[in-house]
Design goal:
Layout lengths: L1 E2 L2 E10 L5 E10 L2 E11 L2 E9 L5 E4 L11 H17 L12 H6 L4 E3 L4 E5 L6 H6 L11
Antiparallel strand pairs: 1-2, 2-3, 2-8, 3-4, 4-5, 5-6, 7-8
Length: about 150
């Protein structure tokens, strides 16, 4: 999949026994930068939705306001990319606002997933998506999910 001609990648992590989403990550490689968004469980009954950015030196920034980011692209292009990334992310989420759970498309996406019985999760990466994104974001984000 592409947005504005840039490759888009998706990582979905869900509870093994339910439709609860643990982390739903979508990102695009925009030249030497990475723009993305995520949703997931932040603890205490709270779900969180944020944006992230890696600059050309691969330094991560997590924010709730993508307009505050300083990127190499013009604000209008950045706004379009983030809006489309949010749309891709939300397709795998149920429309029920009170709980972050899988939509039917999310269930289909997870049909070919890796199941980790020890941690109680199912995880699926789209073609060429990298777990490194999680490793590099998990110290910055508000989610309870961590890869070890």
């Amino acid at each position: 999949m592409e947005i504005q001609g840039y490759p888009v990648f998706h990582i979905l992590v869900a509870d093994i026994d339910s439709a609860s989403i643990v982390a739903n990550i979508v990102y695009a490689e925009v030249g030497l930068e990475i723009l993305g968004c995520y949703s997931g469980y932040a603890g205490g009954g709270v779900d969180d939705y944020r944006y992230f950015y890696f600059d050309a030196d691969y330094n991560p920034i997590v924010t709730d306001d993508f307009l505050s980011l300083t990127t190499e692209k013009k604000a209008a292009e950045v706004s379009t990319i983030f809006s489309k990334l949010e749309s891709v992310r939300s397709r795998l989420e149920s429309e029920i606002a009170s709980v972050l759970s899988l939509s039917e498309a999310g269930r289909r996406f997870l049909e070919d997933c890796v199941i980790d019985q020890a941690s109680g999760i199912r995880i699926r990466l789209s073609h060429e998506a990298s777990e490194d994104i999680i490793y590099d974001l998990q110290d910055e984000w508000t989610l309870t999910f961590r890869l070890r």
